[in-house]
User: Fold these one by one.
Assistant:
Number 1:
Amino acid sequence: MSKKVIVLGEVRDGALRNVSFEAIAAAKKISGGGEIVGVLIGDSVQDLGQELIQYGADRVVAVEHPHLKYYTSDGFGQAFMAVHEQEEPEAIVFGHTALGKDLSPKIAAKLQSGLVSDVTEIEGEDDDAVFIRPIYSGKAFEKVKINEGPVFFTVRPNNIEPLAQDAGRSGDVSSLSADIQNLRSVVKDVVTKATDGVDMSEAKVIVAGGRGVKGPEGFEPLKELADLLGGAIGASRGACDADYCDYSLQIGQTGKVVTPDLYIAAGISGAIQHLAGMSNSKVIVAINKDPEANIFKVADYGIVGDLFEIIPMMIEEIKQLKVNA
């Protein structure tokens, strides 16, 4: 049976996040040929609608309001429910991001529906779709099939391949007026720490350092390697606790959960809390002086040695490959 699916497009710094396109691809898989409607929420987002359509949405509804410049669960919740009441979809898809993790339970409660969160794979299609999600910090996987009621799920970034962008595809981008009121909190301004390079949650390559980097200066060669590979920098909690880097880089059970194509762990022992945040990476390369380090148990490739010797060798080899390419 065909389903109308609405997909929340997530905007950061005036641009759509990649997980928005991955969510559209997931919506296509369960729609049974039904209409895919993109949803944009913010103070100035309507111009981004055509990009959602180029990645597979059939049309887009934008809700703009001055109170939606910054995310609040109250404001975005009211805006999304206005779209839901207009569209009356059979399915909803969000990205499993900080915003999606906060907003999706609120919407599910309002709709009195179930919610399948953190989906990494979808088996089957249409009404036979089975949603796969990690549980117990990635040590096991759960398969969920929705038998009745609306289909509502969030997708983990970097796990579902987006559709190819079709620059020639176009569709209707409409505006919906919503009365955003009675907000319990209003964000006046957001001050962020300056970060260079790629967003870690969507990076295809991550180079992460642990206590083995021995200090803040130990992250410099890791940053150089990440830049060469077009990737992002990450860290273990041990490195963050030792003040080698900011906690915004922390990967693990109490940090960010990432699933890049390539994860390079340098000087990371592999505590279970760290593995919970990166063990589903497609390829894991571990560098550690201790051959018994736990990180080698999940690594696809392991290098036993001093990271301060190995990382510079990798940098030089990659530079040479780029010169010869």
Number 2:
Amino acid sequence: MKSHVLGIDFGSTTAKVVILDEDGNTVASCVSQKGAVSDEGVRAALRGAFEQAGINLSAVVRVVSTGYGRRMLDIADRTITEITCHARGARALVPEARLVIDIGGQDSKVIALDRNGLVARFAMNDRCAAGTGKFLEVLARAVNVELDDMGAEALKAEETVAITSMCATFAETEVISLLAEGRPKQVILAGVHQSIASRTVGLVGRVGKHDPIVMTGGVAQNIAAVHFLGKALETRLIIPTGAQIAGALGAALFALDDLRSASKVKRDDDDAVEGKLEQLLADPQRCTPACGKKETPVTFKA
């Protein structure tokens, strides 16, 4: 029986799992959303992936975790930052990628890759939920539109309106005021997506624009977000199949490296780089995710 490796992206709102066999083939992937940094979300994603693969935890020889809740997983042999894992996963999905834009539930990040696919520079948002999936979720609720429908509704607008608030809470108040003025929902939604595009372009400016550009994360499934961001950057964004699981795929690929007996020296070098990334990510200016307050590890039983 073949050995398998497991990559888990324990995100702020969604858990993603990828299982690879020892030859590097993807045998299963699963996405589960059960609330903010949800233990049950991870367990559901693991159960779904194991069911797809037709195996159980005993067939997995290496586990790497990433994402906000990466340190909460007691089955993980190693934790790696989402910056490194998204870069690795995006490059695997699109080998020519030179820039990765990931808009997730809690943050947005832009990662510049060198010619070898390694992280050259990165930037992350540092203002609450502005420009993230949470921002979209809050404002979809404000205009009474289903989250999955807001992208298509936004593209029906023939004009946009400026959403100037940087904070999701203040933006919600701004949207309610626009509704009270009689502005059409579609126009407001177009403004919401244009606002996200504008903030993301600011992040791109901090690392430099490099084509081809790959977009990953759950917001990559939103056609209006892709449209307005591509327009703002004056380029075509590549949305690969499996964009939402890029981080989990990257984690699984690092687990596969370990399985293939990468030297301890190389792992030590990787860990040294990760240590520096962890320090850069530990920015007190950024909002603390819910998992930062949670100390109980998540246990998965096969």
